[in-house]
Amino acid sequence: MNELISIKNLSIRSASETLVDSLSLTLIQGEPLTILGETGSGKSLLAQAIMGILPAGLSCQGDIALNGQRMTAKERRHYWGRHLSMLPQEPWQSLDPVMQGREQVAEVYREVLAYSAAAAQKATQTQLQQLGLADIQHKLPSQLSGGMAQRLAFAAATAAGARMIIADEPTKGLDTGQRDGIVQLLKSQTENGGLLTITHDVAVAQQLGGRIIVMRHGKVVEQGSASSVLTTPTAAYTQELIAAAPCYWTDVTPQQCHQPLLTVRDLAQQRNGKTLFRHLSFIVHHGEIIGLYGDSGCGKSTLGNTLLGLLAPNSGNIEWHADIPRHQKLKLYQDPPSSFSPAASLQTLLADVVRRHGLQAQQIPPLLQALMLSPSLLTRSSHDVSGGELQRIALLRAMLLSPKLLVADEPTSRLDPITAKQIIQLLVKAARQQQCALLLISHDETQLKKVCDQIIYLQDYARENVINHCD
Q: Are the C-beta atoms of residues 12 and 35 closer than 8 Å to each other?
């Protein structure tokens, strides 16, 4: 049994609280180890502690050994690249935004392994071809899909030959096909090395197999083989985490639809000369929940933006049956921090909305209560609350304006299952109560089937693929 990483009694503390409490684990060659838990459970801090890159203001106690040798954080940094590498949550955080794909990897061969320029280019070309990335060599990260960007980040992380890989939420925000591809790529790393994966996705943990440690609030609540933990969990929290998967949700009875809000006829849209969808026709009713399903790149966000008037269609038309003000056609973004300024408190940002649109500040407290939010959160900035809390505040901000159409663009793809279930339930409840049409964009078909009145399968482009419960 070859122990690659061994941790004993690791604790991570801030000035006021313990974030990870007395954690111990062992990563063995050939056996994947997955840390499973909700947002804020301390999983990513564990990865940062192993790498020796904990944020300022946090202290770490306990023993961390690599290949059986106890090391300080400074000593572990000398292992970066050749022996130990980390795949961060967002591939764009580890890729140079102004460097072509080929150079992202070639730089590792030159700087870490001291390859000549020609040898580095040859090794890079071979590696990118093996990963199905031969066509992205001259593209920038912003020109890549999420799956391609993550594979490129994997290529750069493993180019120097690291046997120990730490993957922090490697499939967050990816559709099912891309997620499964990244999982298989990671599993291949365990044959001659070790893989420590941090995730909130139960499906990813199941595919990886090996062993699982379930964390909550910085503590281990359960651990064991993947098969035993995921099929016969003993801890109440693990049971709750698994039960939050959409396949276990209660089916919602489709609403009877009466008053039309808008009608879409023979709509078509292109991007960079590629047809995304065509001959698309459907009706949206007040208070209706519509699912928009398809893989990444099929045009889901484009259709949402077209309905909101942010893009003009290539052909076809959208007929509104009432004069709806612009501020009542709103969007809930996939990545909550991208829609909030970190330079001001959340209270200030909400006050700006109230003042701009002549609303009443008294509307905020009941919405906070309905969305299960503490008023004290509003004194913080967007960087100082969790992703789930920030997405609920984004929903509160939208509900203040009594929207008639709300486009929710993958609103839960970056959230853990428990938080995701809460967000979807709150979204549907708010839309029903305010008679707001909700366009729910997702690559999770099961989730959509559980809550939607109709589903549009966009990749098929045609009206025949609209499952409509309102005819």
A: no
pTM over cut 0.90? no
Instruction: Please name the amino acid found at residue 388.
Output: G
The CA-atom distances, in angstroms, between 5 and each of 39, 126, 460 are: 24, 30, 47
* Cα angle value 465/468/471 (rounded, 5°): 125
User: Contact, 32 vs 58, CB < 8 A?
Assistant: no
Q: Are 452 and 427 in contact (CB under 8 A)?
A: no
pLDDT digits (tens, 9 = 90+) for 92-151: 778 999 999 999 999 999 999 999 999 999 999 999 998 888 888 999 988 887 778 888
pLDDT tens column, 302-351:
999 999 999 999 999 999 999 999 999 999 987 788 789 989 999 999 99
What distance lies between CA 19 and its chain's CA centroid?
A: 22
* Alpha-carbon gap, residue 465 to 109, rounded angstroms: 48
284-309 residues labelled b (16+ CB within 10 A) or e (exposed): bbbbbbbbbbbbbbbbbbbbbbbbbe
Burial 109-127 (b: 16+ CB within 10 A, else e): bbeeeebeeeebbebbbeb
Classify 408 as helix, strand or coil.
Answer: strand
- Give the pair of three-digit tokens for residue 120: 């580095």
Query: Could you give the CA distance from residue 327 to residue 335 in angstroms, rounded to a whole number?
Result: 20
Instruction: Of 376, 458, 371, 448, give the one whose Cα is nearest residue 412.
Output: 448
Ordered structural domains, the chain, with CATH: 3-247 (3.40.50.300), 260-468 (3.40.50.300)
The tokens of 238 are what? 């693990």
- Provide the 10 A C-beta neighbour count for residue 425: 14
Residue 386's alpha-carbon distances to 397, 411, 415, in angstroms, are 16, 14, 10
**Environment class of 17 (CB within 10 Å of its CB; exposed 0-12, middle 13-18, buried 19+):** exposed
